[in-house]
Amino acid sequence: MLSERRLEVLRAIVQDYVGTEEPVGSKALTERHRLGVSPATVRNDMAALEDEGFIAQPHTSAGRIPTDKGYRLFVDKLAGVKPLSTPERRAIHNFLDGAVDLDDVVGRTVRLLAQLTRQVAVVQYPSLTRSTVRHVELLSLAPARVMLVLITDTGRVEQRMVDCPAPIGENSLADLRARLNSRVVGRRFADVPQLVQDLTDSFEQEDRGTVSTVLATLLETLVEETEERLMIGGTANLTRFGHDFPLMIRPVLEALEEQVVLLKLLGEAKDSGMTVRIGHENAHEGLNSTSVVAVGYGSGDEAVAKLGVVGPTRMDYPGTMGAVRAVARYVGQILAES
Amino acid sequence: MLSERRLEVLRAIVQDYVGTEEPVGSKALTERHRLGVSPATVRNDMAALEDEGFIAQPHTSAGRIPTDKGYRLFVDKLAGVKPLSTPERRAIHNFLDGAVDLDDVVGRTVRLLAQLTRQVAVVQYPSLTRSTVRHVELLSLAPARVMLVLITDTGRVEQRMVDCPAPIGENSLADLRARLNSRVVGRRFADVPQLVQDLTDSFEQEDRGTVSTVLATLLETLVEETEERLMIGGTANLTRFGHDFPLMIRPVLEALEEQVVLLKLLGEAKDSGMTVRIGHENAHEGLNSTSVVAVGYGSGDEAVAKLGVVGPTRMDYPGTMGAVRAVARYVGQILAES
DNA sequence: TCTGGCACTCGTGACCATTGAGTGCCAGGG
DNA sequence: CCCTGGCACTCAATGGTCACGAGTGCCAGA
């Protein structure tokens, strides 16, 4: 196990490197931090830390920089979560209040998060699988054409056109609407299929084709729209990656455009508590030199979706984690109110 | 006026520079293009072109590169619109067919456009101001809570919660729904306000508060949601900007995140025909070294929205214009079908 | 009006010496 | 046993010099 002081040295290295973006040497360390020992001693500690794989030197005659493993130790053992300042909290409030609909909430959140952390922000829309049905509406637009509108408790609305095999009367449609709603309102999406399973049978022969088509479309919508959506922002912050950003930015931009990748990334994060993935811990190659800080958010106890930021492994972890957590909490509150 | 040959020289310079990304000299020009004259002659022509401001030399002893004015002349007089190859057209078809809803259409379009042009693609959602109302639905979720759903002819759905001053009965609500729809279905958004103006008066005293609240919300939704949305993609292509891309990319990314800027940009484009804005012709500073190729698209004769690409001024204009135009046409068809 | 020739400019890349931050190691002291 | 100061070494970065070559402008001649 590493001695107390060696951990302290690692912390100092991480802090300095995050600040200056340059390899940090033994002399500079002793000058900037009150370690109470001489550079030579620090050198020995550094050698030990390097043996253990926590730090590395880019060139033989250069200072040390933390490795992914070093950041991992720093995050797990050495760093807390820095709470936001009061002005920052107030800014969050001001910024998120006044959102008019779900799109707006997500949009504001992503901008806010990008601004606070000065990194790329990713916000997942509240997931449909975990949401419940607030209402199902059926509108007859033409004799054999019905529009299906699905409204969720998170305020999301999905709609589909249904071309019916046969015309259906207003009465039958109203009947279907009523029965459908009485069965599924307030229920979770995942439960809907079995809840509507035998609904077709209770209709007149002539309407059954249409009813089953409508139901099929509903189920299809549930499945399709369970594909989760997300919004990203603050990509301009990618230019703050460091001097080698021209090399790094491309794969990152590509990864950010692949929503599948990002969704998987967020999906890997724990449901509760904060998840930090550092460098090569990220499965996707393009993100091997980035860290992802993600956390779930929701209106109640349970997380309905996740949000987070993507930044260089050389990031201010305590500050970023603090901002991410604070934003997630406020968004949860906003969602609960609506 | 410039002689025929000088124009030919300018065309050659543009083509070579776009291809090689390096200043092009007189000797290389005569070798790669059959101009039928010697380098010395070309040098004289170049000097003339430079006097006129169509080309410039980055350093005294370097070749020439086109200026914004040079590209402008090239686009206006020298370049046609390169039609897409048959495989490319087929690819567009395959890619856009099978879109399930409006989000999907726009999403596919933006990816397609980014891929075809290898540049940043911007697609505006069909504008609400130019669309018509397909249906207005009112749902009673709680005694004094109504959900307003607005469906447009382009398949877009907007919803709002309305907190009513007093409970309203199902009958009155159905009545309102029917009258509202009979007045506004098929009408343009811009006409709706005057169409519903006197609707409140025809209701019972007790319901008037609620009715006017609902109508107010409807009008508000129309105004608010007229703020147009758009989708962008292919930002990874920004890395193809050239050797100095690290300097250019930041302001461009920032501009791309400001939807207002992009909307203004597209708004400046002509409604019909293609618009090309080159370098400093773009009002926004961050886009001073980019060109924007934009075109309107729509289901009928009239454009309901615009789409385009943002790329370096050094771009393949004929190819890009061809791709943009082709995609716009196909998207128009898709929208017309649905 | 075009062409070939010629002198000139200047960015590029190779080569080299210098500098300085940083290291590893070792002998000595608390 | 651990810490410290000293010392030799490494090596990236800096900056200067120099030759090269692509490209230019200009001019005289066809």
Automatic annotation (TrEMBL), chains A, B:
HAMAP family with a match to the protein in the record: HrcA
Q: What is the lineage of its organism?
A: Bacteria, Bacillati, Actinomycetota, Actinomycetes, Kitasatosporales
Species of origin: Streptomyces albireticuli
Kindly provide the name given to this protein in its UniProt entry: Heat-inducible transcription repressor HrcA
InterPro entries cross-referenced by the UniProt entry: GAF-like_dom_sf, HrcA, HrcA_C, WH-like_DNA-bd_sf, WH_DNA-bd_sf, WHTH_transcript_rep_HrcA_IDD
The UniProt record lists the keyword Ribonucleoprotein? no
Query: Sorted alphabetically, which Pfam families does this protein's record hold?
Result: HrcA (PF01628)
Q: Which UniProt keywords apply?
A: Repressor, Stress response, Transcription, Transcription regulation
* Keyword field contains S-adenosyl-L-methionine: no
Q: Which family does it belong to?
A: Belongs to the HrcA family.
Please name the GO terms of the biological process aspect recorded for this protein, alphabetically: negative regulation of DNA-templated transcription
Q: Which GO terms describe its molecular function?
A: DNA binding
Q: Which domain of life is it from?
A: Bacteria
